[in-house]
Amino acid sequence: MPNSKDQVYGDHISERFNNELLELKTRFLEMGGMVEAQVGSAVQALTANDSVLAEQVRVGDRGVDQMEIGIDEEAILIIARRQPAARDLRLVIAVIKMVVDLERVGDEAKKIAKQALKLEEEGQTSLGYVEIRHIGSHVHAMLHDSLDAFARLDAEQALRVMKEDKRVDEEYQAAARTLLTYMMEDTRNISRCMSIMWVLRALERVGDHACNIAENVIFMVKGEDVRHTSMEETERVVGR
User: Name one GO cellular component term (predicted).
Assistant: First the structure.
C-alpha cells in the first residue's frame, strides 16, 4: 500500500489535477494486478494440466489490451489539459512506458497458456515442471515487487528488483541445460522440451519487463534515466 512517500505526487492546489494523477496511478496498478494474476494463472494452468484455466488466461489477454489503451488515453489527456512539469511529467511519462511492459507481460502469459493447451493435448507428464515452477515463482515475485515499488515510490525496492534479473538469467540458462540433457537422453522428449523452453523464455521475459518497470520507478523518484546504466551507477543514483 502507498505510504508517506506517495505524497510526492498529488499536492496541487487543483484538487481535480490531484484526482487525475491518483486515478492514473490507480488504473495502472489495477492493470498490474491483472497481468500479475495472468502470469500466476498461466503457470498454474500448465503445471496442473488445467485447460480451462489456460483458456481463461488466453481470453483474458483482451482485457489487458483494453486497459492499456484506456490508460494511454488518460495519460495523454492529462498532458494535454494540465501540461505537467517536473515530477508530475515524470509520473505520466513513466506510466505511458510501463503500460507497454504490462501489456507485454500479458502477451507472455498468453503464450504460456497456449503452450499449456498444447502440452495438455499431448498427454500428462511432469517433465520440465520443476523448472517452470521455480522460475515462474521468481519472476512473479519480481513483477509484484516492481508494482509495489511503484505504489510506494520506493527506489530502493526497485533497485532490488533490478538486481534479481541476473539471477533469473542464470536460472534460465541452467534450466535450458537441463532440458538439453533430457533431449539427448531420449529423442522422444524433444517436442515437449522445446515447448517447455518456449515457456521458460516467456517467463524470463516477464522478469525483463519487471526490471523495466523498476527502472521507470527510479526515474520517477530520482529524476534520472538508469536504462543502459551499470548496476554500480544505478546504486549511486538510488543512494543520493
Answer: cytoplasm
